[in-house]
Write a structure and sequence with these properties.
The chain has 642 residues and is of the alpha+beta class. Helices cover 29% and strands 32% of the residues. The chain folds into five domains: 249 residues, 3-Layer(aba) Sandwich (Rossmann fold); 88 residues, Elongation Factor Tu (Ef-tu), domain 3, CATH 2.40.30.10; 70 residues, Elongation Factor G (Translational Gtpase), domain 3 (Alpha-Beta Plaits); 110 residues, Ribosomal Protein S5, domain 2, CATH 3.30.230.10; 95 residues, Alpha-Beta Plaits. The chain has an eight-stranded mixed β-sheet with strand order 2-3-4-1-5-6-12-7, with helices on both faces.
């Protein structure tokens, strides 16, 4: 069985293209639809079995493409016939380049194109390191594309509504353009083939069969990206695309070599299905894989066809099947016999930058929610679920709002859990602005043993990022050595929550003096005295609130970089600079410092200002004072979230 994935921006016609490909030789079986973001289509073409994976477009679904591509022999990048929309294809072209998977461009809806095909290809080339080579040129009647000429076979095909294209003569007015485009194609191929270069230098016309062989080899080694034309909704150009996949795309052994020669199978997709539990779509790279065999160090459960009902026999190399209730197989891995190993970095999801605190609507679901999220996470590598260090609630990380809606729906439908979502509050801190010395005596007598401890503690501010330091300058045993650790513990107790309700950082506490009682002093008494002394001192030491500042690295197409300066400035961030990506054509890496509270706004702004093409990583850099309006906004947000 051969397998390919179809990727591309939203509204480019991917699903229509896959349906047209699957129906070339009659009605195709009903596909497996999963998560509203992936469709698995199985069909036959020219006596061969094929699987096509249709990945929904949009930034929320891009992470689904990685595992599918890792399992595929080739990829089809479906793009709109619009030069200005080429930037929407940038994330998919980047993923193809990073993966090294053989890829074919399909310029869809060519019948509606208003731009020249050469201009569309040039715009796409901006985001592709490897050369994009046109394999066809359009035939036009006026402004309308009515067919295409194959540049290798030099045959002209006229489109027909819902039917295979008709072989016709190359129009006389197209002959010069066809020859020019064919020469460009042959020269591009000759850059990678000395024999063809020699023929061109000697003005010898190469045989079509030779050229097809060269094109096939270059595709299989991902040295060039061929581009085809068509209109999937009319079944135009679809047959030629499928024939190219059949003759030029490699077999499953190449997909295996990209991962590891030890790979026995790979997870292409996974889902959590009510009444079935976790199902994982695996593609076998070795013949004989079946239910009950050891895979990734443990036996796999039952193995079914993609309908999840029909039992599957042994899978041949290249075949796919669903493992049902096989807990040790997770999406994002490939499998050797003895262990599961993570897919390469390019197949891993971008950081889950859309974060919300999630809590069950009904208290009875508190324990079940954690279990349900863990089960979903095993099927969904773009999902994260971690405890919030401040509130203890779960912070749910997703790829975007659509992804969040799908997770919410899965929790309701698959587990019967309704959830409430609130924004993640920023992790505020406090520090002091001036030194203060505080004397505190703790004395209590209420029958039995009493409590006595007397301490003098000085607090002093430290530079940002220093943390907490404790020193003692006790002389003459005023505070016995065995009680000093208790005083330090009491100081740290007081720093858990300062006058404004936030942890206190960046200060030094010095135990300067004190007194003790031979009978009534104790560890508890000195710990209490230390805590109370610091609490009183903090109020007088000019407490200030600190907000966390993150270093943010944004990956975005270069065309949007200029506009991002204004976006960051509006979010009270500081631009550090930007530079071209060292390996990815047409991409910049933009670095800035940004308050944590602005991350949600950045996420939303990037979606609109870069048309959903950018993504970012964020890491803690430092704390800085929150002033005036900022402090009011932060404290107001904290009260609302509480």
């Amino acid at each position: 069985m051969r397998m390919f994935s179809v990727v591309g921006p939203s509204q480019s016609g991917k699903t229509t293209l896959v349906q047209a490909l699957a129906s070339l030789e009659g009605h195709a079986p009903k596909p497996m639809e999963s998560n509203g973001s992936v469709g698995i289509h199985q069909f036959r073409f020219m006596d061969e079995d094929w699987t096509a994976v249709d990945i929904a477009g949009g930034a929320d679904n891009l992470y689904r493409a990685g595992p599918a591509l890792a399992a595929s022999d080739a990829a089809v990048v479906c793009v709109p016939a619009d030069a200005e929309a080429a930037v929407l294809s940038a994330p998919y072209l980047r993923l193809i380049e990073e993966s090294g998977i053989p890829a074919i461009l399909f310029i869809n809806r060519i019948d509606q194109a208003t731009d020249r095909v050469a201009d569309i290809v040039a715009a796409l080339q901006t985001y592709c390191v490897h050369s994009i080579v046109l394999r066809q040129v359009p035939m036009r009647q006026g402004d309308r594309v009515v067919g295409a000429v194959d540049l290798i076979s030099e045959r002209a095909w006229q489109y027909r509504e819902g039917e295979p294209s008709k072989l016709v003569e190359i129009p006389a007015d197209l002959e010069s353009r066809e020859q020019e485009a064919r020469t460009e194609l042959l020269e591009s191929l000759a850059d990678h083939d000395d024999a063809l270069l020699e023929q061109l230098v000697e003005d010898r016309e190469p045989m079509a069969a030779e050229v097809y062989d060269i094109a096939s080899r270059l595709l299989q080694h991902h040295e060039l990206v061929p581009a085809f034309l068509g209109a999937a909704s009319h079944c135009n150009g679809v047959h030629r695309l499928m024939k190219s996949l059949r003759h030029e795309a490699p077999g499953p052994e190449v997909a295996r070599e990209r991962l590891s020669t030890k790979a026995v199978a790979v997870a292409a997709h996974a889902d959590f299905v009510k009444h079935l539990g976790k199902v994982v779509l695996v593609r076998a790279f070795e013949a004989g894989l079946k239910g009950g065999q050891t895979l990734a160090g443990a036996p796999i459960g039952s193995l079914t066809e993609i309908d999840a009902r029909t039992q599957a026999g042994e899978l041949a190399a290249g075949d796919i099947g669903l493992t049902v209730k096989t807990d040790h197989l997770n999406l994002g891995d490939y499998y050797a016999r003895d262990a599961a190993r993570p897919l390469p970095d390019w197949a891993q999801p971008h950081p889950s930058a859309h974060r919300m605190i999630v809590s069950p609507t009904h208290e009875r679901d508190e324990a079940r929610l954690s279990t349900a999220l863990e089960q979903l996470r095993q099927c969904d590598p773009g999902l994260t679920a971690e405890p919030d260090p401040q509130s203890g609630h779960i912070v749910l990380g997703t790829q975007g709002t659509q992804h969040l809606r799908r997770v919410t729906q899965q929790l309701a439908d698959g587990f019967g859990i309704e959830i409430a979502l609130t924004p993640v509050p920023p992790s505020l801190r406090e520090t002091i602005s001036r030194p203060v010395e505080k004397h505190h005596r703790h004395r209590k007598q209420s029958g039995g043993a009493g409590q006595f401890a007397d301490v003098v503690i000085e607090l002093a501010p430290l530079p940002r990022g220093t943390g907490f330091l404790f020193e003692e300058h006790i002389k003459g045993g005023a505070v016995p050595r065995n009680y000093i650790p208790s005083v330090e513990a009491g100081v740290q107790d007081a720093l858990v929550s300062g006058p404004n309700g936030h942890p206190v950082v960046d200060l030094q506490a010095v135990l300067k003096d004190g007194k003790h009682h031979s009978v009534d002093s104790s560890d508890y008494a000195f710990r209490t005295a230390g805590k109370n002394a610091v609490r009183e001192a903090l109020v007088e030491a000019g407490p200030i609130v600190l907000q966390p500042i993150l270093r943010v690295e944004i990956h975005l197409p270069s065309v949007f970089t200029g506009a991002l300066v204004q976006v960051v400035s509006s979010l009270k961030g500081q631009v550090e600079g930007f530079e071209g990506h060292p390996a990815q054509a047409g991409w910049d890496v933009f670095t800035c410092l940004l308050p944590t509270a602005a991350l949600d706004s950045l996420f939303n702004s990037l979606g609109s200002s870069t048309r959903g093409t950018a993504w970012f990583t964020a890491s803690f850099d430092h704390y800085q004072e929150a002033r005036g309006e900022e402090l009011a906004e932060l404290e107001g947000a904290g009260r609302n979230r509480a």
